[in-house]
Amino acid sequence: MKKYILLLGCSLAAIIVLAFLANNINAKENERKELMKTGAEIADATFSSEWQRYYPREYDSWKKTKDNKRLEDMVKKWPELAIVWAGYPFSKDYNAPRGHYYAVQDNVNTLRVAAPGIPNSSVQSPLPTACWTCKSPDVVRLMETKGDLEYYTGKWDKWGSEIVNTIGCYDCHKADTAELKVGRKYLNGGLEAAGLAVFESSTHQNKRDLVCAQCHSEYYFRSTDYEDDAKVKKTAMVVTLPWKEGLRADDMMKYYDNGSNFPDGKPFKDFVNSISKTPVVKAQHPDYELHTMGIHGQKGVSCADCHMPYTQEGAVKFSDHQIQNPLRTMDRSCMTCHRESETKLKAIVKEKYDRKEELFALAVDNLAKAHLEAGKAWEVGASEADMQTPLDLIRQGQWRWDYAVASHGGFFHAPDETLYTLAKANDYAQNARIALVAVLAKNGVSNYIAPDFSTKENAQKLAGLDMKKLVAEKLEFKKKIEQEWIKQAKEKGILDENLRDYNDDVSSYFGAPK
Predict the structure, then answer these.
(1) 201: buried, middle or exposed (CB in 10 Å: 19+, 13-18, 0-12)?
(2) What percentage of the chain has pLDDT greater than the value 90?
(3) Do you find a cis peptide bond into 119, omega within 30 degrees of 0?
(4) Could you give the angle at the alpha carbon of 52 between the alpha carbons of 46 and 57, nearest 5°?
(5) DSSP 3-state of 128
(6) Cβ(106)–Cβ(95) under 8 Å?
(7) For the CA atoms of the chain, what is the radius of gyration?
(8) What are 337-393's pLDDT values in tens digits?
(9) Which one, out of 23, 227, 255, 437, has a CA that is 20 to 30 A from the CA of 7?
(10) Are residues 472 and 142 in contact, defined by beta-carbon separation less than 8 angstroms?
(11) Cα torsion through 420, 424, 429, 435, rounded to 10
């Protein structure tokens, strides 16, 4: 009898436990379903704060990109940049990127876009509207409502009161389902040119790369003539990915050097260096391209796997949207696959970084000196025939150097390709300098030593920049024009004021950059 009573008691206890577990599982499933509701009721998809009610965990983690607020002045760290980019806005101002939360603010603040409207309304930015393209979901809205060509037409300040919300949910997700999407058509154009699957035909894992690739890629502005709806002739500067010949630095230079790829029939250039007269191609940030060449990309690891690792809360698994350095989330970004200690992995990464920095320093030093030596050669009477070879060598070297370092994580994503490309860059730069020794000697100059460019101040002076004037104009712009843009955006109801909760107190020319 006691045996049956014991069995009955155990059975009842088991039933109670199972009922509790079932209730807990049901509660977690209901929680999961609630969290995965679609965003069909989102009032304004460009307002990232509107997504919070449906995706609170993703939103809260995305807001933490505000924590990455340190600004590093790269021209101060590497004064050579002012020389190699002389004659181009990057010589004025170039900073290491901060968190996505600051993308629009940093774009407005940079000296590269100048101070449109100062001293009068006739002054425009030297840069095209395309320089907004990767900064805001408002860009996607404008492309959808105005059309791509109209968006790409005009100067940067054209959209000053329209592009006001920083990189957010609508850049990468559909508003009704939160499925991954790309709102910028040029990505598919680049993929097609490279013979790769377009976004819509890609696997979900590849899409977790491609939503990043729509911005983290090398591109150029392609001059495109068209007529608007009123039959007015206009020219748009359309973002285009140079992937026709491939994704490597050598492939892209082959594309850029082939004049038949461009409307004017000439090899492409972003600018002419004002010191050396070299036609330069400025690399942007070929992060996706280098990622595909490294072991992680080749093994199918996506950008999001490391920079937005999955996180578990209750029954809910979601991507951490605090996009950041994976070394800060190693337990979720690295240790799910690697069995070495975190200490050992960090040491490996540091070694890769140090090797890149060493070759970076060698290449950019030789490039800067080559530009200055070329400038001297022109000064003493060198002919265009004399200068053709050294200038082409500088062009080839600078492109490869820039490609290798404009992708800030390239040293880790594809260390072999990065070091190979930097080594070739340095070789081109050294050969340019050797060729310039002969040109200078031919024109009566021997033992020429380039002037000192060891500080940002010295280098920018050599680049012909009046920094006091530029900064004064920019501060006036921020006081007047920027505030007017914000006022207009509020009046239009297009500014997400919930995300203006930061102090605009640091840049390369005000505040305290590192």
Answers:
(1) exposed
(2) 88
(3) yes
(4) 125
(5) strand
(6) yes
(7) 27
(8) 999 999 999 999 999 999 999 999 999 999 999 999 999 999 999 999 999 999 999
(9) 23
(10) no
(11) 160
